[in-house]
Amino acid sequence: MPNVPPEEASYIEKEYPAAIASGAGKRIYDVEHRLFFPAWNLHNAFNDARQQLKLSRPIGSDVKFTIQMASRVPYRMVNAKIAWDKFDSADGGKILTLQQVRLGAEKSEHMIGAPGLYIGCLANFIQQ
């Protein structure tokens, strides 16, 4: 995954929420169509998925709570997959090499089945 230059990340982190809050379509469009916006969005989606995975670890014997937390994982993983697809389609060879794009696409396909596998693994830790 490409790194977003710090000054660009800082700009997007400030401008994107401001653009959304303003409701100005052109302003939102301009931010979303910056070269590094898809990469920035991808980083955020992956970080969100990672945080949800950390929160979903089995906790004691509270089966209901563990399952509720795990049920949030698929949503985050789907968002990460969508963010990858948007990044991939927006990149057009500007940031990643063809080999990196192929590898990323291959690995992003694994995200589709990962949530179910993860929840199944959590179930194995639950003591009856």
Chain-wise SSE layout:
Elements: H1 6-22, H2 25-32, H3 37-55, H4 63-70, H5 73-91, H6 98-125
Structure description:
- There is one protein chain.
- This protein is mainly α and 128 residues long.
- The chain has one domain.
- The chain contains six helices and no strands.
- Helix 1 packs antiparallel against helix 2.
- The longest helix has 28 residues.
- It is globular, with a radius of gyration of 17 Å.
- The mean pLDDT is 81.
**Average pLDDT figure:** 81
Any idea what the shape is? globular
The count of DSSP E runs of length 2 or more, i.e. the number of strands, is 0
Largest sheet data: none
Count of alpha and pi helical runs: 6
Structurally, the number of domains stands at 1
Strand and helix order: HHHHHH
Low-confidence region ranges: none
Helix/strand structural class: mainly alpha
Residue share in helix? over 70%
The Cα radius of gyration reads 17 Å
Measured between the Cα atoms of the first and last residue, the distance is 41 Å
List keywords for this structure.
128 residues; 77% helix
What is the gist of this entry?
With 128 residues, this protein is mainly alpha-helical. The chain has 6 helices and no strands.
